[in-house]
Amino acid sequence: MDRLWKRPVRTVRGGRRETFKKLQARGGCMSGYIAFERVSKYYGAGEHKIIAADNMSFTIEKSEFCVIAGPSGAGKTTLLNMLGGMDSCDSGSITLDHTDISCMKERELTDYRRYDVGFVFQFYNLIQNLTALENVELASEICRNPLNPKETLAAVGLGERMYNFPAQLSGGEQQRVSIARALAKNPKILLCDEPTGALDYQTGKHILKLLMDSCRRTGKTVIVITHNQAITQMADRIMRIRNGRIQSSDKNPCPLAVEQIEW
Predict the structure, then answer these.
(1) What is the structure's pLDDT at 142?
(2) What is the CATH number of the domain that holds 109?
(3) 150 in a domain, yes or no?
(4) What is the rounded distance in angstroms from the CA atom of residue 208 to the CA atom of residue 214?
(5) Angle formed by the axes of helices 201-218 and 171-184, to 10°?
(6) Contact 224, 231 (CB under 8 A)
(7) 3-state secondary structure 10-28
(8) Which parts of the chain sit beneath pLDDT 50?
(9) Domain-located, residue 250
(10) For the whole model, what pTM was predicted?
């Protein structure tokens, strides 16, 4: 398994396996820390076939704070699930840090999700009979090089609340626990699915600032999907998606501070 991470490979026609560098040299793979190349995903068949991702191609650089915006049903969550290894693409390739995840087997995908990806969802998915600290410790115990759970909770402003159960925490505090849980894994990327969708305006801004600060402080690549177009103003990279297609992917020359954003 160690060889998988040192020498990334992908399967190509004829059952051959090639390294990322060889593919890139032949023009068969896009450069970038994260790269989607002609990725498509379908659900159903025949007349009931739904195109969730339609020939998506884009790149995201390391340590970027990327916001992917689009209306409900645009394909944002499908994109995030494929990048997070929770769903597979039907065609194309997906690479992270020169490793092609689109041809991984299920065991390899399990390791990928465990070690390389931190997830933050709209609903916090905390274990109710565990304290905030225990929720974070549970995630850190399955990782190769985890961060200290207590220090991570303190970093998200919950140093005085780590022994409380989820029912004793506000919605914003529970979301902070879920962010700490993701960060404690020390992953390569942090994937956030509508992380402020269940929060009020002020709490939502606090969570966005926390995510941005985490990106800047740790150098993690953070990807946030949202239907809220205002949030794009704080991003290093802005991607817009509609009907399963990438409409644009642009660098933002002047990201705004969270405090300057209104919606």
Answers:
(1) 87
(2) 3.40.50.300
(3) no
(4) 10
(5) 20
(6) yes
(7) EECHHHCEEEHHHHHHCCC
(8) 1-27
(9) yes
(10) 0.85
